[in-house]
Amino acid sequence: MVTRWYRPLEVVIGLKYDEKIDVFAAALIYLEMIHGKEIIQSETNMDQLHKLLSICGYPTQNSREYLTLKKLGVDHIHDPSKLEELTVKIS
Questions:
Q1: Are the C-beta atoms of residues 56 and 7 closer than 8 Å to each other?
Q2: What are the structural domains, with CATH classification, of the chain?
Q3: Each residue's pLDDT tens digit in the chain (91 positions)?
Q4: Which pTM does this prediction carry?
């Protein structure tokens, strides 16, 4: 289990993941120590997804993250307003 604020994209959209999620979480904690505040403060998985894509950028068309988002019904993931379509699909 990973606290929402430290979840990488793979976890948020339900992909298989490995120990790299720990590196992602550690990097966020390190940035928080430098800046003195939380980097990603999300209320829901949808909010986490939107913030991750806003900060880290959108997946490339050949990536498994892009293909998973497309499979979940997000056809235009480069348009943040279209992410609202995922609210029901991501719990």
A1: no
A2: 4-86 (1.10.510.10)
A3: 568 888 888 888 888 888 888 888 899 999 999 999 988 888 888 888 888 888 887 777 788 777 777 776 665 555 555 555 554 444 4
A4: 0.65
